[in-house]
Amino acid sequence: MEPWLNYALIAMLTGGVAMVFAKMGMGNANEHVALVIRTGVLFTMVVANAWYAGSLKMVRAIDSKTLLWFVLAGACTAVYWILYFKAIKTADVSIVATIDRAGIVVTILLSYFLLKEPLTPRLLIGMATILTGTLILIWK
User: Fold this and answer.
1) What radius of gyration, in Å, describes the C-alpha atoms of the chain?
2) How far is the C-alpha of 3 from the C-alpha of 43, rounded, in Å?
3) Average pLDDT for residues 97-121, to the nearest whole number?
4) Range of the domain at 106
5) Residues 87, 112 within the same domain
6) CB 102 within 8 A of CB 134
7) CA distance 37 to 44
8) Phi-psi category of residue 73: left, alpha or beta, with phi > 0 → left and psi -120 to 50 → alpha
9) Alpha-carbon distance 89 to 3, whole Å?
């Protein structure tokens, strides 16, 4: 199995587990405080990983255009997590997570138009399946 596939599968598993753990912790906790704690742990682990890999010294090599893309990605991630935690505070995490995964459709379309990645029949079928599942969940 390709290394990238191993990484993607483990990321998928830990991402799914993380959402359930977050919902389990919600209880009486404020969703904003919950997100601060989660993000603090995330930040600490990411910095420790970069330090361990010896990559922190490469920060100075980042050009301004690249930095802008990372800042924009960070801002989108912040909005994403703020709204995601608000959603799981009051709804079933299984439904919120499934709707959230429809973001893959946005990713696929943007990667096609902006990154010129191929849009294969297999990708289109997968995209349609995800979109159909999302519509079934939100349809009343």
Assistant:
1) 18
2) 24
3) 94
4) 102-140
5) no
6) yes
7) 11
8) alpha
9) 35
